[in-house]
Specification:
29% of the residues lie in helices and 24% in strands. It is α+β, with helices and mostly antiparallel strands. The protein is elongated, with a radius of gyration of 41 Å.
């Protein structure tokens, strides 16, 4: 669908549903609606059954946690229309302990999606026939995708040779949990002397004799410097006009 067609569809949906639509907008070419929690089934049913919409496929249900907001959780429904080749996203904002109606009566695939949202975020879907954990184990404490859930978790599991089964134990870290400030150690160590730096300081002060390799390299450098100085002196001091050079071997004047 073109942008104009999507804008017309958005107007059609909002005019039909009225107060059930809190806000409509586009996010990266995707039509999005913010919906009141009590109207979620009405909106989903209209998007599925309306001939101009035909969003008959529920792709997934997920959630986002915003601990600093009064409406802490955002439940997201992603729908697809095969006939229109278009997607729509429906958002519902909930308080921490607020419940929302299950969408299983409209989309059977919502069963496992809602179980996953409950398992990861702790959001309760009312009238769900089997709302239990689907990703974590039985007896798991907490909801891993909530922002206050610790990165290390609360328990860890291992196989016990004595009892011949998997057992749960409190998390024991081999080292303290570290927080990195991304400061380069070389930038931070301004007044610290590394092992071996004191030798460089003593050499600079002349307290330590240089090793034979350093002495030999200095001699070679001195000879090379003297040879270069001699060549430069010869170039700069030319013989005077009228000077005759003699062959010292045969004592014969050379032309």
């Amino acid at each position: 669908m073109t942008n104009e067609a999507m804008a017309d569809l958005a107007e059609h949906i909002q005019e039909t549903l009225g107060d059930a639509i809190v806000q409509k907008y586009f996010s990266i070419d995707t039509l999005c609606f913010d919906v009141a929690p009590d109207s979620i089934l009405e909106v989903l049913q209209f998007l599925r059954d309306d001939r101009e919409c035909a969003f008959r496929m529920l792709i997934d249900i997920t959630a986002v946690d915003y601990p600093e907001r009064p409406d802490r959780f955002k439940v997201v429904y992603n729908l697809l229309s095969l006939s229109q080749n278009q997607r729509v996203r429906v958002n519902v904002y909930l308080e921490e302990n607020q419940m929302i109606e299950s969408a299983i009566q409209l989309f059977q695939c919502a069963n496992w999606y809602e179980r996953e949202v409950w398992d990861m975020f702790g959001i309760i879907f009312t009238n769900h026939p089997d709302l239990r954990r689907i990703l974590t184990d039985y007896g798991f404490e907490g909801h891993p995708l909530r922002k206050e859930f610790p990165l290390t978790g609360y328990v860890e599991l291992r196989y016990c040779e004595e009892s011949k089964r998997v057992v749960y134990e409190p998390v024991q870290l081999t080292q303290d949990f570290r927080r990195f400030d991304f400061l380069s150690p070389w930038e931070g160590m301004t007044d610290v002397q590394l092992p071996g730096d004191e030798k460089a300081d003593e050499k600079a002060d002349g307290k330590i004799d240089k090793n034979p390799v350093e002495k030999a390299s200095e001699k070679v450098g001195e000879k090379a410097g003297q040879s270069a100085d001699a060549k430069a002196h010869a170039r700069n001091h030319k013989p005077p006009v009228g000077y005759k050079e003699y062959d010292r071997t045969n004592k014969v004047e050379s032309s």
